[in-house]
Amino acid sequence: MFINKFITDLKLELAKDLPSKKAHQRMMPLVRLLSPLDYTINASTKQSGVLILLYPKENDLYTVFIQRQDYDGVHSGQIAFPGGKFEKEDITLIQTALREANEEVGIDISSVEVLGHLSELFISHSNFLVLPVVAYMPVAPSFILNNKEVKKIIEVNINEILASESISENEFIGAGNKKIKAPCYNFNNNKVWGATAMIVSELHYILENI
């Protein structure tokens, strides 16, 4: 019963003004804070959608992250929400997020209720403007991992997102093999940083209001 009320309240919160920059700054790498002009959209910016899927498990609510496979690119091996770039067959970015989640981890999108979305976020190194879509599934998904794109699936209880001890600071390797010191979320030794951590931070703010 509490899950149904929580999902209803979350849908109402997502319809309000979003915390956006205030939430993003909490988990923003120092280099981005100091050089905001380097993080603005441009004529060649591409659009993408990611899916924040909530679902019941063990009498609680969970969401799912993926660790990307290693490849020759700026997001190689990073932890993220399922998602990807807008394709010509997509009508909306919501459809993009659902399609990519189905392709990457086998989520049955016919069972998904879209609750709303978070603020768009620009990722400069890959030149993507990302829309995080928030959705709910009434039963835990049966994941099917796409090994070409996904190294592993990481399920996280939303209480871990709200726990202050989940936030720390660490050193990461960014674009151009540069070392970057950045705040991160640590979920069972899986470190979430950069744009994904900024998205989680906005979700964190909203969850705190419920």
Largest sheet: 8 strands, mixed
User: What is the alpha-carbon Rg in Å?
Assistant: 16 Å
Shape: globular
**Which bin fits the share of residues in helices?**
25-40%
Mean pLDDT: 92
Number of helices: 6
How many strand elements? Answer: 11
Please outline the helices and strands.
Layout: H1 2-14, H2 21-26, H3 30-34, E1 46-57, E2 60-68, E3 79-80, E4 83-85, H4 93-105, E5 113-117, E6 121-123, E7 128-136, E8 150-157, H5 158-162, E9 167-173, E10 179-187, E11 190-193, H6 194-208
Parallel strand pairs: 1-7
Antiparallel strand pairs: 1-2, 1-4, 2-3, 2-8, 5-7, 6-7, 9-10, 10-11
What's the short version?
The chain is of the alpha+beta class. The chain has helices at 2-14, 21-26, 30-34, 93-105, 158-162, 194-208; strands at 46-57, 60-68, 79-80, 83-85, 113-117, 121-123, 128-136, 150-157, 167-173, 179-187, 190-193.
Q: Can you walk through the features of this model?
A:
There is one protein chain. The chain has helices at residues 2-14, 21-26, 30-34, 93-105, 158-162, 194-208; strands at 46-57, 60-68, 79-80, 83-85, 113-117, 121-123, 128-136, 150-157, 167-173, 179-187, 190-193. With 210 residues, it is an alpha+beta fold. The strands form two sheets. Strands 1, 2, 3, 4, 5, 6, 7 and 8 form an eight-stranded mixed sheet that branches. Strand 10 (179-187) and strand 11 (190-193) form a beta hairpin. The longest helix is centred in the last third of the chain and has 15 residues, at 194-208. The mean pLDDT is 92.
